Amino acid sequence: MRLRRHPQLYEQTAALLDEVENRAGALNTGDQAEDAIVERMRQFGREALTQWAEQRHEAVQPVRTPGLRQVGKKTLLADNARPHRVDRTTLALGAAHAAAVLRPLPACSRGAARGACNER
């Protein structure tokens, strides 16, 4: 049976059937039964979506090969190569940090005369 492969869903199904059969004897009116069953269905739906997401996450995760380095975020060196871009850190730290990071490009990168960049 497929429910045996999903013990949490199996428990939720059993609890829903207990509500339908009024095993606890607490559901005396239609309103009480409706509230209890609707809440149980919400719990069942949350559990089902959680399990679906976990299975989907496992399915799309790449297989990790030992010895290979995982590609991560670019280093600060790459950020300094593009001073015209604003990152989240700059926005969070405010204007003083932005002024230090967002410095004007050197004349040679703005299309100045050929020998302008060689002056140091």
Percentage of residues assigned to helices = 40-55%
Q: Average the pLDDT over all residues and give the rounded result.
A: 75
| Strand tally | 0
The residue ranges in which pLDDT falls below 50 over 5 or more consecutive positions are none
Q: Strand-and-helix sequence, N→C?
A: HHHHH
How much β-strand is present in the residues? under 5%
Global Rg: 30 Å
DSSP summary: helix tally: 5
Largest sheet: none
Specify the structural class.
mainly alpha
End-to-end Cα distance = 77 Å
The geometry reads as elongated
Task: Count structural domains.
Answer: 2
Task: Give a written overview of the molecule.
Helices cover 54% and strands 0% of the residues. With 120 residues, the chain is mainly α. It has two domains: 2-60; 76-105, no CATH class. The model has no long low-confidence stretch (mean pLDDT 75).
Give the gist of this structure:
By secondary structure, the protein is mostly helical.
How would you describe this structure in keywords?
single chain; 120 residues; mainly alpha; 2 domains; elongated
Task: List the SSEs and their pairings.
Elements: H1 7-21, H2 30-60, H3 76-81, H4 88-93, H5 95-101
